[in-house]
Design brief:
Blueprint: E1 27-38, E2 41-52, E3 56-60, H1 67-72, E4 84-92, E5 95-96, H2 104-110, E6 111-114, H3 125-135, H4 142-152, H5 156-159, H6 172-184, E7 190-194, H7 202-215, E8 220-224, H8 228-234, E9 237-245, E10 252-261, H9 262-267, H10 272-278
Parallel strand pairs: 3-8, 3-9, 6-7, 7-8
Antiparallel strand pairs: 1-2, 1-4, 4-5, 9-10
Helix pairs in contact: 3-4, 3-6, 4-6, 6-7
């Protein structure tokens, strides 16, 4: 079963993402033995993997396996959670994001994030998009910045005549695309997406997936999803996390058990647990 309690559905091979050659030459992130703790409890254990430039990388796995926790370690969002700490190294273009000299606020400016539920500010559509560039003191024409971000988020034609109306008047799918526009307005290199379609209807979900494939031309994207079909449709690389228990079964944490090209994960995985998960036999 998936996280909503619905029966798991095996991925149809025809849904697998096949959008040309996967570029693995340039690394955006290198994770080296990354573990995340909340207080004394380990949430994610000993993750080592590389995330590549202008790829869509999916993190999948059952509920409670640490997908979102691992995602938040990539832009130091876990720093905002009391008692959370990260061990190991997260290199972003060969700079360790957890070096004491690194400012986590600057990290979050370089690495944008879109959350599970649309969270527009209680401001106009225009001010939502302009907020980040204004706070960074970006000197380009603000009208141009806002228009370009909305165009890149495939939203401009729908809202260009009501830019100064409250964002709360938008549909859920439009609000999520607005949040994507807000994230890319500051011109980050990476966009992190934490289950960005889980609160959306199928039509809006399709629009977000199409948008991700467009954005991949200019951005590296890491997405957490509980929807295996979505991972198969949009991602280039997939990491499967599973829950591990200690010998007394008192403590549990998430581990990456397999990371590979998405096609291989779904059609020819190395680990039998991966085959069981993607076929719906466990999860």
């Amino acid at each position: 079963m998936d996280e909503s309690g619905a029966p798991a559905i095996q991925v149809d091979p025809s849904e697998l993402h096949t959008h040309g050659h996967i570029e693995h030459s340039k690394k955006v992130f290198e994770l080296n033995k990354v573990s995340v703790y909340y207080g004394d409890s380990k949430a994610v254990s000993d993750v080592s993997l590389d995330i590549y430039h202008r790829n869509i990388t999916a993190l999948i796995g059952p509920s409670g396996c640490g997908k979102s926790t691992l995602l938040r370690s990539l832009n130091r969002m876990n720093d905002l959670i009391p008692g959370a700490r990260v061990e190991g190294e997260v290199f972003y273009h060969e700079s360790n994001l957890y070096d004491r000299k690194v400012n986590p606020v600057q990290v979050r400016k370089l690495i944008g994030m879109v959350f599970q539920k649309p969270n527009p500010f209680p401001k106009s559509i225009y001010e939502n998009v302009a907020f980040g560039p204004k706070s960074l003191g970006m000197k380009d024409d603000m009208d141009d910045i806002v228009e370009q971000a909305l165009r890149d988020a495939a939203l401009w034609d729908e809202v260009k005549d009501r830019l100064h109306t409250n964002a709360y008047g938008m549909s859920g799918g439009q609000q999520q695309r607005l949040c994507i526009a807000r994230a890319i307005a500051t011109q980050p290199e990476v966009i992190l997406m934490d289950e960005p379609c889980s609160a959306l209807d199928p039509v809006s979900t399709g629009k977000i997936e199409d948008l991700m494939l467009e954005l991949k031309r200019n951005y590296s994207i890491v997405i957490v999803t509980h929807n295996m079909q979505q991972a198969a449709r949009v991602s280039d690389m997939t990491a499967l996390l599973m829950v591990e228990l200690d010998s007394d079964e008192h403590n549990r944490w998430g581990e990456v058990i397999e990371y590979d090209d998405t096609n291989k994960i779904f059609t020819n995985p190395r680990d039998p647990r991966t085959d069981q998960y993607v076929s719906g036999r466990i999860g």
